[in-house]
Amino acid sequence: MTDKPKLSMLTLGGTIAMTAASAQGAVVPKLDAADLLATLPELEIDLVTHDFRQLPSPDIGFTDLAALAEKIEQEIADGATGIVVTQGTDTIEESSYFLDRTIGGDVPIVMTGAMRHPQQAGPDGPANLSAAMVVAADPQARGLGTVVVMSDEVHAARYVRKSHSTSTGAFTSPNAAPIGHIVEQELVLLSRPRPYEPLPRSPRLTETSIGMVHAALGDDGDWLRPFAEHTDGLVIAGFGGGHVPSRLVPLLAELAEAKPVVLASRTSSGPVLTRTYGYPGSEQDLLSRGLINAGFLDPFKARVLLHVLVSAGADRAEITRIFHDSGEISVS
Ligand code: ASP
Q: Record-annotated residues binding substrate (predicted)?
């Protein structure tokens, strides 16, 4: 018998695992779990490791995420009390949300990465990995779902954004705050996100295509029709509280009749409104034409959620209901 936490670590590549042939060369993912662990002091945990992928995170796709979720569920069934996933930071805000929405149960899934690669001065990978282990091993983390641990902060997957391209403080939760901190190698938890019922992962995940379009000043969207034809659903990242140029409205209304079209905000924080503006192209106009409100969900998380729902065959009413709940929309 042992009281030690039983952690399972899965590596997917990313800057945390990158090296170059020479000190001046550009880095690519190369290091495996054993290499990453060699940078940490000895750990008081039972740890199994899996070198799952060796990718820069822009190359992670839904096929990889579905396989990762399955592997994590298998590790949990085999007795893991916490999961640590290392991956590139570029897409961690999306992959963490995917895992958060599709894996049930109480076992915490803790994702981390690095902003500085191991050959730079002051690489943050070892500190982030060590902090992720602390969180995954702490019984307080049970029931938190998937979190991202970077720079000694714990961010809920539903809130976290990569908000800077190079800073070691790149990770923020713009609509909330970190839900916890790692202080003197211990987890200090400040708040707990409410749990979600896990959504099903359909085999159709890999063949579903959801497009994302950002509204931009003066863009009449002429190019959008042929692009939209090749998608099963769309996320429109509107201006401000959910607005687009009026010239785009007839096309968006037509598309919303044919497939789910979700309206998010391109601002990176704050919700889509429901009843403030009434001009053509305003949130009220678009919602009245069948677009689905993403609420507080940013366009990237909205796209992941729509992808999961469309691939599972959810109908418009179900998609609207789940977005209403996930986007924390308080008005009916
Ligand atoms: N481009 C890298 C990646 O996402 C950046 C990182 O790992 O932080 O894999």
A: 57, 89-90
